[in-house]
Amino acid sequence: MIVAYALSPIDLIPDFIPVLGYIDDLIIIPAGIYLTIKMVPREVLEECRQRANYEAITSKSKWVAAAIIILLWLMIVYLIVRFIWKIAS
User: Fold this and answer.
1) Cα–Cα–Cα angle for 63, 65, 71, rounded to 5 degrees
2) DSSP at 20
3) Angle ∠(8,13,15) on CA atoms, nearest 5
4) 32: nearest Cα among 4, 60, 58, 59
5) Model confidence over 2-30: pLDDT tens digits?
6) Which of 2, 18, 27, 46 could covalently link to 32 via disulfide, CB atoms 3.0 to 4.6 Å apart?
């Protein structure tokens, strides 16, 4: 639920209101994360943490995924620059 609120374009206080627009995000999202962690049973949370640590140590696929994403972004930037260059010429 907290992820949906964080990604939702609808806020309790709209972001375009100076200062107040971001204060609700700075309070609600961390509070929601804290409450979510407190609601997860301790055994489940510990098991997930151990699994994450094990996979972080043994998995090399994250570097491959990162490289693919970086290459995709570079390709997109290249195509945009090329398109703008053609328009300007």
Assistant:
1) 100
2) H
3) 70
4) 4
5) 888 877 877 777 878 888 888 888 888 89
6) 2
